[in-house]
Amino acid sequence: MTEIKAPKKLIEVALPLDDINIAAAREKSIRHGHPSTLHLWWARRPLAAARAVIFAQMVNDPGYERSLQRGVNKKDAGKERERLFEIIRQLVLWENTNNETVLNEAREEIWKSWRETCTLNKNHPRAAELFNPEKLPAFHDPFAGGGSLPLEAQRLGLESYASDLNPVAVLINKAMIEIPSKFAGRKPVGPIPKGVRQTRMTEDWSGAKGLAEDVRRYGHWMREEAQKRIGHLYPKVEITTGDLRPRVFSCE
Question: Who's near 155: CB < 8 A, 6+ residues apart?
Fold first, then answer.
């Protein structure tokens, strides 16, 4: 059996744990745009930690002998490792969740490490199957739960597969991973609601923005239809700025 040459990964050596922990703790107070607003999952992993762990699992540690002809100077390896740590520090910030500049830098490092691994194993008898330098390994999570890991793997450029025994978890993962990716980069197809002006002739429909806009348009349509059909059951009231203090009424 031919031995597979597996470079030591960054996660096996060191991580900027303090920065990851701070970002993960901060996530608890963030609600706008967070997957937890879709559905609260009791064992959801922090997105910051998931992103950092997947990145560190895919990236080779600089201390590994990257070439069969030369070794790596420990001082130089330390500097390179610190550069990778800085990528992680930027990667885990909530503000950079959809920052393509930061994400692309991380994706490039993952590709770089994967191609190094492919080069090391180019003479393996199954190299064409297992070590294709033009195709990253897929990410598999058989117990995906709230979907943090497959979501962040997808964000880092990996093809994600998720499953779970709980049908609620399956639905969450479909809504976060499968459906948005099918409509990525597409413009909305629903009609613009009446009374809503199109501010620009061209829009940025990158990512799932087109899908999100369609959901908003459909939601607007549903609200208007509900108003037509059962609005008479909910008479309009005038809200004044009078005394809004809570009142206690006695049953005596």
Answer: 51, 97, 103
Name the residue type at position 148.
Answer: S
CB 188 within 8 A of CB 209: no
Give the H/E segment covering residue 160: strand 160-162
What's this model's pTM, rounded to 2 decimal places? 0.81
Domain ranges of the chain: 10-168
Task: Name the residue with tokens 């061209």.
Answer: 202
Residue 167 and residue 161 in contact, taking contact as beta carbons nearer than 8 Å: no
Q: Cβ-count burial of 121 within 10 angstroms (0-12 exposed, 13-18 middle, 19+ buried)?
A: middle
Token pair recorded at residue 155: 């964000």
**Contact assessment for residue 164 and residue 173, using Cβ atoms and an 8 Å cutoff:** yes
Residue-level pLDDT, tens digit, the chain, 252 residues = 678 988 999 999 999 999 999 999 999 888 777 888 777 788 888 999 999 999 999 999 998 765 444 556 788 889 999 999 999 999 999 999 989 999 999 999 999 999 999 999 999 999 999 999 999 999 999 999 999 999 999 999 999 999 999 999 999 999 999 999 999 889 999 888 876 665 554 578 888 889 989 999 999 999 999 999 999 998 888 887 765 666 555 555
In the chain, how long is the greatest CA-to-CA distance?
93
Rg (CA), the chain: 25
